[in-house]
């Protein structure tokens, strides 16, 4: 049975108070007493409260909590790209614009430097062997906790580099409170070790209890960890760390997941099949989804995602021209060389003869509209709400279609919305495998055929042939200008495919960071070509501002000099000043 993760109930018997500051140094309460850690149910209930901390999906309730330090809302899987070069929110992202300073003076434990969940995980690991159940049963729940601990530390290393590696719950006298950070290399070795333990202990797919983790999901996380760390080490040469072990770990995990249990879903018309993947109430029986977050109407566990996404209320964003331009034409050629490309004089012409995923990710005028007779504050019929029009703004004119669920019934459920979130998707396995094999010097046509080309087959795009890769001087020029390197043509196309297939699934920021391509954020932020006849009431140089080519400039007034990425500091985030004051052994990340 495919595991789908519901919003597991956090039972009050396992909740305890803890101050989240300063590595959570305050004492534990009665859960550490002899009245717990006796039965399998004790382990199960304890872990139930942990699941929602990591398998968030679209969040809960209004789904509007802000995720620090990134600044996007709780439905990170859909909104995470607003801090990347894929998107432009109406109010520019502080992170993307190098204006993130709030947590330099923030309280201890802020800005992502928070170890409360690690403490919860370590408390379990200190005690779970006390239960009077077989070791194999204990291991299943221990595997869940090691999965979450690996995930937590992976996220912390992405944010801060070196972080304290904690294996016990701390007291007010614990020396770890005043220790230096553990070097990145040691932390990531430990992460790799514990995710391997999780893989060994978790049950095989189909053998897990309903709505609990299985071995395949741990393999997926290992794949993500391995590819990120392996490529980060390769392109961030200043670390002087070898990433081959991690790349090999990623490739090995992919190979185990590519054994036949999963496949790219192709059922349906090529003009709809990709978009429909992201507008579902359940992924039960879906061969492409390895882990999903699903909600329960009967338990009134839901989230106001579909309603506010339809309104474009969260972040009020649109896709960027730079993102649009990376999609190939239907002949498999880039827009700079394809005779099929009709130009950018209007969005209607721009979307013709393009990879079908483009018009299923970004709305053409009149497509992916609110239901007839429904007014929810934003619409795309017959045109999006660019500045100068009423309603929630789409500052680039490129309104997102991906994740749009056109169902007023679900919108009216508000905080009990039932739209499901695919958290781990098999397409990412294929993309990661292609990239890992390239970085290992092992990517040939056979690898491309079972990865990139298998994904392209869903929408009928031409196959990528490693011997006849078309030139793309525009994209290569961007790499040369903003990254100081130009990837090999095959790697460029693997990365292109990743950007297209995984668009608005919260992978782009991590990709820019690990490729040392953060300066892609400096590519001027433009929107669609503004056609006055389509927006007769919108005033140029008042409501909207245009580039010399006539494209919308969302930040012409608010960021007149454009976004800036400081490579000397922005690949990592700062540690809160209060934590450094409390523990002088902590040293701030460079140039913060």
Automatic annotation (TrEMBL):
It comes from the Bacteria. It is found in: Cell outer membrane. Residues 315-592 form the RagB/SusD domain. InterPro entries: SusD-like_N (IPR033985), SusD_RagB_dom (IPR012944). GO terms for cellular component: cell outer membrane. Keywords: Cell outer membrane, Membrane, Signal. Residues 79-216 form the SusD-like N-terminal domain. Its main location: membrane. This is RagB/SusD family nutrient uptake outer membrane protein. It comes from Pinibacter aurantiacus.
């Amino acid at each position: 049975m495919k595991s789908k993760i519901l919003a597991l109930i956090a039972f009050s018997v396992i909740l305890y108070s803890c101050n989240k500051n300063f590595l959570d140094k305050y004492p534990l309460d009665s859960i550490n007493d002899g009245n717990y850690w006796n039965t399998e149910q004790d382990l199960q209930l304890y872990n139930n409260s942990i699941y929602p901390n990591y398998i968030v999906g679209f969040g809960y309730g209004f789904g509007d909590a802000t995720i620090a330090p990134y600044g996007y809302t709780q439905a990170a899987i859909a909104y995470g790209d607003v801090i990347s070069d894929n998107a432009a929110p109406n109010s520019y992202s502080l992170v993307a614009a190098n204006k993130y300073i709030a947590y330099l003076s923030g309280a201890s434990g802020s800005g992502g430097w928070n170890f409360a969940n690690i403490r919860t995980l370590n408390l379990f690991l200190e005690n779970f062997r006390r239960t009077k159940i077989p070791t194999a049963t204990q291991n299943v729940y221990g595997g869940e906790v090691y999965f979450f601990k690996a995930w937590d530390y992976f996220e912390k290393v992405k944010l801060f580099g070196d972080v304290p590696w904690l294996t016990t719950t701390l007291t007010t006298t614990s020396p770890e409170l005043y220790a230096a950070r553990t070097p990145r290399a040691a932390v990531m070795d430990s992460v790799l070790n514990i995710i391997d333990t999780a893989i060994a202990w978790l049950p095989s797919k189909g053998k897990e209890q309903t709505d609990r983790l299985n071995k395949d999901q741990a393999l997926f996380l290992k794949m993500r960890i391995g590819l990120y760390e392996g490529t980060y080490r390769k392109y961030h040469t200043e670390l002087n760390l070898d990433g081959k072990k991690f790349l090999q770990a990623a490739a090995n995990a992919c190979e185990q997941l590519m054994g036949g249990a999963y496949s790219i879903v192709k059922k349906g018309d090529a003009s709809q099949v990709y978009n429909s993947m992201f507008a579902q109430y359940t992924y039960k029986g879906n061969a492409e989804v390895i882990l999903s977050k699903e909600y329960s109407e009967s338990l009134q566990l839901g989230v106001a995602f579909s309603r506010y996404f339809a309104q474009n209320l969260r972040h009020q964003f649109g896709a960027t021209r730079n993102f649009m331009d990376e999609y190939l034409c239907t002949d498999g050629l880039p827009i700079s060389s394809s005779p099929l490309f009709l130009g950018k004089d209007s969005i209607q012409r721009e979307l013709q003869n393009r990879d079908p995923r483009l018009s299923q990710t970004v709305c053409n005028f009149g497509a992916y509209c609110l239901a007839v007779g429904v007014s929810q504050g934003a619409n795309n019929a017959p045109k999006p709400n660019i500045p100068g029009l009423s309603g929630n703004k789409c500052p680039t004119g490129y309104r997102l279609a991906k994740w749009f669920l056109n169902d007023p019934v679900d919108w009216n459920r508000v905080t009990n919305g039932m739209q499901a979130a695919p958290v781990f998707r098999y397409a990412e396995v294929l993309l990661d495998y292609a990239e890992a094999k390239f970085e290992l010097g092992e990517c040939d046509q056979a690898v491309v055929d079972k990865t990139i080309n298998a994904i392209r087959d869903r929408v009928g795009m031409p196959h990528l042939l490693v011997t006849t890769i078309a030139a793309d001087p525009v994209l290569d020029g961007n790499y040369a200008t903003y990254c100081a390197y130009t990837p090999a043509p095959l790697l460029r196309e693997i990365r292109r495919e990743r950007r297209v297939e995984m668009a608005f699934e919260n992978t782009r920021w991590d990709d820019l960071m690990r490729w040392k391509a953060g300066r892609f954020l400096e590519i001027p932020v433009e929107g669609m070509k503004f056609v006055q006849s389509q927006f007769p009431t919108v005033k140029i140089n008042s409501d909207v501002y245009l580039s010399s080519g006539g494209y919308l400039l969302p930040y012409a007034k608010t960021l007149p000099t454009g976004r800036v990425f400081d490579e000397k500091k922005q690949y990592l985030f700062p540690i809160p000043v209060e934590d450094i004051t409390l523990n002088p052994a902590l040293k701030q990340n460079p140039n913060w």
